[in-house]
Amino acid sequence: MKLQRNGRSKALAIGAMALVSSLSLAACGSDNNTNTASGGSNGSSAAAAAINCGKAGTLLGAGSTAQAPAIDVWKTNFGSSCSGTTVNYSGGGSGAGVQQFNQGKVAFAGSDFALKPADVDASKAVCTGGKAIDLPMVAGLVSLVYNVEGVDNLVLDGPTAAKVFDSQITKWNDPAIAALNPGAKLPDAEIQTFHRSDDSGTTFNLTSYFAKTSGGAWSAEPSKAWKGKGGQSANGSAGVSAQIKQVKNSIGYAELSYAQTNNLKSAKIATGAAQPVEATAANAANTIASSTVSGTDGDLALSLDYGTKADNAYPIVLVTYEIACDKGNKAETLDTLKSFLTYTISDGAQKSIGDKGYVPMPAAIGDKVKAAVGTLA
Amino acid sequence: MTSSSPAAPRGRERRPRDSRVGDKIFMNLARGAGILLLVIMAAIAGFLAWRSGMALSNNNGNFLTTFEWTPDAPKPVFGIAVLAFGTIVSALIAMVIAVPVAIGIALFISHYAPRRIAQPFAYLVDLLAAVPSIVYGLWGALFLIPHMDGLTSWLNQYLGWTYLFDQTRTGTPRNLFTVGILLAIMILPIITAVSREVFRQVPRMHEEAALALGATRWEMIRTAVLPFGRPGIISASMLGLGRALGETIAVAVVLSANSVLSLHILDAGGGTFAQNIALKFAEAGNNGRDALMASGLVLFVITLLVNGAARLIIARRKEYSGANA
Amino acid sequence: MTTMTTVPEDARPQVGPRLTANRLPRWTPPAVAAGSIAVGCGIGAAAGLQSHLQWGLISALLFLVGGYLISAQVEGRRQAKDRFATSVVWVAFILAVVPLVSLTVYTVQQGIGVVNGNFLSHSMKGVIQSGPGGGIYHALLGTLQQVGLATLIAAPLGLLTAVYLVEYGRGRLAKAVTFFVDVMTGVPSIVAGLFILSLWNLALGFSYSGFSGSLALAILMIPVVVRSTEEMLKLVPNELREASYALGVPKWKTILRIVLPTAIGGITTGVMLAVARITGETAPVMMLVFGADYINSNPFDGPQQSLPMYIWQQYSVVNNDFGYARAWGAALVLIAFVMGLNLIARGIARWRSPKGGH
Domain ABC transmembrane type-1: where (chain C) (predicted)? Predict the structure, then answer.
């Protein structure tokens, strides 16, 4: 009994300590990070000068995780010059974002895909007198990341890559790969392919590229769910990148930013241009600049040219959209929404995400978006 | 004087007025809580059934036997065969590993360990019940998976003839077997914590009677502790099973999900209900969401069947339990 | 280790049946353990097995079999069985300790570097996530409030339901409640989230808030509370109740003063398990609380952040060294937070529980 009483008072003392410390913690929280945010925010001051803040308030947005890091940079810069406005973006996926938008719970949605007709119809309930439109805002590229010892300059083309990801080519020293990589020391090892286990816009863009360029080797329709045979899967680009890093003789796909932060090598693509094209933002910008607007009636959905053969045009690109009402945005957020989107499509803002693995929107597209944002009502 | 068992709540005899009022209030409060719970649950079940019904009417495949999951395609096809298989297999592996070990640990804490070890260890186990599943997932992906390579190839080499442990494709050990082990580690603290509390409640007299009859410690545990604790162990296991069946993020991070149904549990692949919901939810359209709800409903039913079986076992064994009838 | 001795006057009750029986000396189990570890490692090294996991498994197997055989030779079968059971329990203990300690050590290793005063007291507002800086204060506060509210709803409700089932419940209603509580343990967290979303946010039109998250968390918490409390209440000996009734104490007072305090240790464990489970939930929180990078101290209005959601974002979206560091730091704080709660709850439970017993 004595022993136990000792233990009891000790437990009480520890408990009391924990309680006190948690209470003292509760008293000293701070939103003020100006002293600590040393890195990353350079360039924001330059961009800040041009921001027109609009009405103060809170702006909610939700959707695509692919553009979450871009929005993160923008909302930070926007917030640093417009202290009255809080932009809050929740990256729960494009589908979830569109649903939240159509439920009237967020002012804008981020999406990896252009709206489907059914979604546009549904949006008319929220956009009084108008409908939802797609505004291309964040552009990027999908790189084929690989981890093969001794191979640093892997080159693939559409049919070969499609066959690799569909388990039709299973060895690294397969003649098809060897033909594209003369002189490379390709190992006699099985290819470990990794794809996304979750549905994603990244998969959609990659399979769109396969469907267009593989010459029939990729039989499935482009889709956000993986349809290839064999291979292994991982959750999110983060998961795929982690696997490529861990597993030898592996290949997978991820947005450029994940390839960069995880120090993964990206394959060059032989598109039919004079030289195989490297996966860089500049090369992707060339492809995006030549894409055409396929949306109608104010909608700026793009049709991307995955089959491009131009020099220095990287073919596996992706464009994500912001979705807002063309007319009938909520009165209390309209002003803030317009000023935020005006800022994000500005040249300064687009440039500021360039070093995060994104592609600044080419002027050809950007100008159309700027005009469209100006007419939001 | 008053009723002597909880079975007869309303005593016939006269009691002081205030206590009768108090009794009434308290009983109604308790009953109200039960009814409220019932209403909430019924609402959830109804909600699920309603949404599932909408999805099922759009399904172009057989919901029970189809492997693919494409509810948002122009021609929706989706089925739960792979998911049901993966969920049951991984949970089964988890239970087979976790329940005996958890009982062992609970006995260790309550009856074997020196007090100086038992107390801190009990806290450690509680601490592990507190580890969020996302942390288990990250630990599993970054630490456990690389350490499973050896065990997987060893099992394949020596037990490959069992079919079950035959590894037909090379790849990482991101398979149902590893998921089962991870789930076992996750549910271990839950089963242990509850079983431990139950073992602690074993009447001293039972134990001492057994020992006085000359039983060894193991015989005492087998005759006095385990029969008394059996319903508690089963309940604890059901709580653990609930978590294993419904675990989302950890499985999503660790498993190499695909739509292949294979009894080779060392091959990377497979899927579970909760993991599928987590992976598909973010990009799901309206029908996709409803289809995911339908799969959630199946998880409901599975949980229900298992729990029902457990309740039956408890009821049958009641006479041995030594606790209250 | 084990407490078998040849001295019959030993204070422990577990004395062998015959005083004249052959007994192994006290140092036998440790010696067998040491021997099997040595042999296990030897076999492992000789066979060139890569993973130390297998070395350990072989050693454990040798320990079990060796201990049994030696004891069976010297002490007879009954004693050997007893020793075997003891060994199994010890092996189970060690088997569990390995991953559990590994997990803890791994988290502490990864997380300790980033946890400091600034990390604990600042939000992420104005911090570019792919860079350094920022903290978890907003997430910690959000988790504290959401879990607190959920517990305030679920614990009394669950407790009362369990009391109803054990002390009053007979007939159809009780059966129905039991049935639905069982079903409830299988609610995937996302389904609970969607249900609240449809009911609270869409049908009733409330906006994102910490409270709507708590509602979903409460749904997840209730079955765990009911099930564990029910089990603990059933274990309270009827003699206690009967003694109380015999003294003329009304039933409700008996429950409040006798039954619940007797079971308070187990009930606390159950509630803490439930709290631990919901504290780590990501999906419903993301759906209902929305997430924020700034401090919102009002759980009833506007988006909040929570720790598990914060961890998930830092891991999957930020996905660089800064993100990983913050994720592990937050994980460490989350575990410490739940552990602190656990200690407090246990302290209270011990303080309130009747003396005596074990």
Answer: 140-345
Contact C346, A7 (CB under 8 A): no
pLDDT given for residue C26 in this prediction: 77
Task: Determine whether the interchain pair B286/A232 forms a contact, defined as Cβ–Cβ distance below 8 Å.
Answer: no
Retrieve residue B94's tokens: 């988890």
Instruction: Tell me whether residue A291 is exposed, middle or buried, using C-beta atoms within 10 angstroms of its C-beta: 0 to 12, 13 to 18, 19 or more.
Output: buried
**pLDDT per residue as tens digits for the range B108-162:** 998 888 888 888 888 788 777 778 788 888 888 888 888 888 778 778 888 878 7
The alpha carbon of residue A231 is apart from the nearest alpha carbon of chain B, in Å, by: 9
CATH H superfamily, domain A142-286: Periplasmic binding protein-like II (3.40.190.10)
What is the per-residue pLDDT for A54?
79
- Tens of pLDDT, residue by residue over C224-246, are 899 889 988 988 888 899 999 99
| Architecture of the C137-352 domain | Orthogonal Bundle (1.10)
* Under 8 Å between Cβ of B299 and C188: yes
Give the span between the Cα atoms of C7 and A58, in whole angstroms: 77
Whether residue A201 is annotated as binding a ligand: the answer is yes
Please give the pLDDT value at position A133.
Answer: 94
Q: Is C98 on the interface with A (CB under 8 A)?
A: no
Residue C345 to residue A12: CA distance in whole angstroms: 9
Q: CA A236, A241, A244: angle at the middle one, nearest 5?
A: 130
CA B30 to chain centre: 27
pLDDT band, residue A26 (cuts 50/70/90): low
Q: What are the residue boundaries of the structural domains of chain A, listed by start? A: 22-139+323-374, 142-286
Is pLDDT at B8 greater than 90 in this prediction?
Answer: no
Q: Do A22-139+323-374 and A142-286 have matching folds?
A: yes
Q: Tell me: the pLDDT tens digits for C164-222?
A: 999 987 888 998 888 888 878 777 787 888 899 888 888 888 889 999 999 999 999 99
Identity of the highest mean pLDDT range in A4-13, A47-56, A212-221, C40-49: A212-221
Check: CB of residue C319 under 8 Å from CB of residue A237: yes
Which residues on neighbouring strands pair with residue A155, listed in sequence order?
A: A268
> What's the rounded Cα separation, in Å, for the pair C62 and C76?
19
Q: Does domain A22-139+323-374 have CATH number 3.40.190.10?
A: yes
Is A36's CB within 8 Å of C134's CB?
A: yes
Nearest CA in chain C to B109: C93
A363 in Cβ contact with A285 (< 8 Å) = no
The predicted-structure confidence for A120-148, as pLDDT tens digits, reads as follows 999 999 999 999 999 999 999 999 999 99
| Burial environment of residue C81 by CB neighbours within 10 A (0 to 12, 13 to 18, 19 or more) | middle
Q: Residues of C with CB below 8 A from A357's CB?
A: none
Which residues 136-165 in chain A show a CB within 8 A of chain B? Answer: none
Q: Domain boundaries in chain C?
A: 26-112, 137-352
- Contacting residues for A54 by C-beta, under 8 A, at least 6 apart: A82, A85, A335, A336, A338, A339, A340
- What residues of chain B lie within 8 A of the CB of A204, using their CB? none
Question: pTM for this one?
Answer: 0.86
Identify the CA nearest to B208 among candidates A220, C14, C209: C14
Q: Strand, coil or helix: what is B165?
A: coil
Q: What is the ipTM of this complex?
A: 0.84
User: Lowest-confidence range among A60-69, A260-269, B3-12, B19-28?
Assistant: B3-12
Enumerate domains of chain B plus CATH numbers.
97-321 (1.10.3720.10)
Evaluated on CA atoms C70, C76, C77, C79, the torsion sign reads negative
